[in-house]
Amino acid sequence: MILFDTNIWIQFFKGKREGETLQKALLGETVVMHPYIKGELLLGGINVELEILIDALPILNTPNYSKILDFIKSKRIEGIGWVDSVLLFCALENQAKLKTLDKKLNIQYQTLTNSKQ
């Protein structure tokens, strides 16, 4: 299961190299969506066909505010914003890989999973 951040979706829609990982994953792996990413993409004005694609993906639920805040405090999350903290939590909570072009978010993810992307 893989959660792709908005920045990779944008590269995918533009046909850029950075979106190739998403393209391959859509063909062979379980790609999941988060409501915050979906919202950002819809605000960007995607077309109907792409909206249908996004709507077909499994959605990760957003936990309540206090659960996210506890996560931020317990893991000492710093240097990323609220939305990125929520995405990080949801990926880890659902045992999904998190793919992003955001360097700070990627560092947090790698630190918490001891992985290299």
Task: Describe this entry's structure for a reader.
59% of the residues lie in helices and 7% in strands. It has a three-stranded parallel β-sheet with strand order 2-1-3. It has seven helices and three strands. α6 (82-93) packs parallel to α7 (103-113). The longest helix has 12 residues, at 82-93. It has 117 residues and is mainly alpha-helical. The model has no long low-confidence stretch (mean pLDDT 93). The chain has helices spanning 6-14, 20-28, 35-43, 48-55, 65-75, 82-93, 103-113, and strands at 2-4, 31-32, 97-99. The chain starts with a strand and ends with a helix.
Largest sheet: 3 strands, parallel
Average predicted confidence as pLDDT: 93
- Which runs of at least 5 residues are low in confidence (pLDDT < 50)? none
Number of strands: 3
CA-based gyration radius: 14 Å
Strand order, main sheet: write it out: 2-1-3
Strand content: 5-15%
Brief write-up:
This protein is 59% helix and 7% strand. With 117 residues, the chain is mainly alpha-helical.
